[in-house]
Specification:
single chain, alpha/beta, 8 strands, Rossmann fold, globular, 2 domains
């Protein structure tokens, strides 16, 4: 029988981390982060990275792994996440993948096989000078199919797609292999008005906690302005309003990605009872837990 892995996903500010900890407490689980920025050291306030206190003693994996000056690829994430799942299962615990990076989640849950194309430093340097719209136009000429579905606001992915298409003639359709585990996907969502209010509150809290100091600290550490822009941290004049606007845009891109996955069971964050009933239905909650919930 395949081991079961819970996936808690959704847009930013929907309460994924809090729910993951509560679920882990009930089922004896450990959490694997699926956030493409929280994997880097020093990116704490700006990514809303969970604190030790908020973890409440639950082990968290794949946080603070990489130097922000270097790139951590989705293929690397896929391997490390798969290794973490295997280790957690081996110790008799239940893995809980938690995050908002759909590409990372798909890499693990769908068993995506990525094309082996080594980085082309010269090409990347040349492409980095172009705007997002210019990169998209170039990709359209090389691979119009890929250009239709790519995140056109993500310069890193646009450059990588052009790099692959240049080497192979086109970006191959990502192959998928049958997953080794059964993935139970829980999506958290909020109506747009509520979500935007939560994003506004979170961003204001980030500024109060020292977001600008964190950006300055990253620069002093040697993280380039170009690299900071890739993280979404570089603003000419950082303001609460601008960060809120960019975060709202990002949340919309997240939902566009998640909507394609029909395996996700959606809940509002307040529907805790319904979520745990769903987990009981999937035979994830241990026996006897239902009675203990009086």
């Amino acid at each position: 029988m395949k081991s079961k892995v819970i996936v808690i996903l959704g847009q930013t500010a929907t309460g994924k981390s809090d729910l993951a900890v509560k679920v882990a407490k009930k089922i004896g689980g450990e959490i694997i982060s699926a956030d493409s920025r929280q994997i880097y050291k020093g990116l704490n306030i700006g990514t809303g990275k969970i604190t030790r206190k908020e973890m409440r003693g639950i082990p968290h994996h794949l946080l603070d792994l990489a130097n922000p000056k270097n790139k951590f690829t989705v293929a690397e994430y896929q391997k490390q996440a798969s290794d973490a799942i295997a280790d957690i299962v081996r110790r008799g615990k239940i893995p809980i993948i938690c995050g908002g990076t759909g590409f990372y989640i798909d890499a693990v849950t769908k068993g995506v096989i990525f094309p082996e194309v080594p980085p082309n430093a010269k090409l990347r340097k040349d492409l980095a000078r172009l705007s997002g719209s210019q990169l998209l136009q170039r990709l359209k000429k090389l691979d119009p199919v890929r250009a239709k579905i790519i995140d056109r606001d993500n310069k890193v992915r646009l450059i990588r797609a052009i790099e692959i298409a240049t080497a192979l003639g086109k970006v191959p359709k990502l192959a998928e292999i049958k997953p080794e585990h059964t993935f139970i996907k829980i999506g958290l969502y909020l109506p747009p008005v509520q979500l935007n209010k939560k994003i506004e509150k979170r961003v204001k809290k980030m500024f109060k906690a020292g977001l600008i100091k964190e950006i300055i600290s990253l620069k002093k550490f040697g993280v380039s302005s170009k690299r900071l822009r890739e993280f979404g941290f570089e603003y000419n004049e950082p303001t609460v309003e601008k960060v809120i606007a960019e975060t709202v845009k990002y949340s919309k891109r997240q939902m566009t990605w998640f909507k394609r996955d029909k395996e996700i069971q959606w809940f509002q964050p307040k529907e805790k009872r319904a979520i745990f009933a769903f987990l009981r239905l999937k035979n994830v909650l241990p026996r006897g837990k239902k009675k203990a919930r009086r």
